[in-house]
Description:
Distance between the termini: 41 Å
Number of strands: 4
Helix content: 40-55%
Strand content: 5-15%
Structural class: alpha+beta
Number of helices: 13
Shape: globular
Largest sheet: 4 strands, antiparallel
Strand order of the largest sheet: 3-2-1-4
Amino acid sequence: MTGERQKTEEQVAADTDRRVEGLIRCLSLDQLAGFQPDRRILGQALRHSSYSVENPPADGQAPNLDSNQRLEFLGDAILGYLIALKSYEDQPDAAEGELTKARAALVCEKSLAAAARVMGLGNYLQMGRGIAAAGGASQASVLADAFEALLGALLLCGVTLPALEAFVSDALAASRHLLDNDAEEDYKGKLQALVQKTNSFKLFYDILDEKGPDHRKIFLAAARLNDREIGRGWGNTKQEAQKQAAKLALWRLTTENDQGAAVPAGGGADNGAVGGGRVVASAGAAGD
């Protein structure tokens, strides 16, 4: 990394302070019971590991210790406790298995990411250039991790458990409509229908990357029209990653059409599946 591209320590600090101040105002964090702002901790909650790699701490601290990963660990434990307690109190007749399912539905990545979207949390995250360019601020895994990291930071800033419980409950309730709408949307099918308006383009999906252990792997997919990438997305499965890529691609192509731009010309329109990580969409496969 060259000196011209790496931010100075002063630039990093100023950028962090601006984001923290904006987050406090946006979410009215100063109204939470017990809140004593620690800007270092709050700034760390907003710092994705990719940013810490590109802008390593001046004190020589390992980038992963400077990012929000440790706070995510703490927030995950807090969230599990709060949701388990609420489920236990709200469902006195539920068996253990039912309580476990109820908790899992509320603390899953989709649920937390939806809450983070409604809060606008992605607007305040510090990310590396690559993941930011790939739409990292809207990726479910990034947003869910940031939501948990924020909870961890709020606890360390003195927010009481009852205040945290209310904060989480309000955030999940405010975002429930996004989960309902997203579950019903067939983004791949809608994108395929848009592409089929012309015979000149072939829509297919590439799996670009996969990360994490086998039990918690995430995938990065790209949607392409011939040789042009039109959207990327992360997901817990290859299908979910393709769906998120199609969602972004659909928005981009719709925006271009609204502005009078044609979908770019390309090669033939062969349909079917090809080997490796590439899937070519056909009318029957678009909604898989």
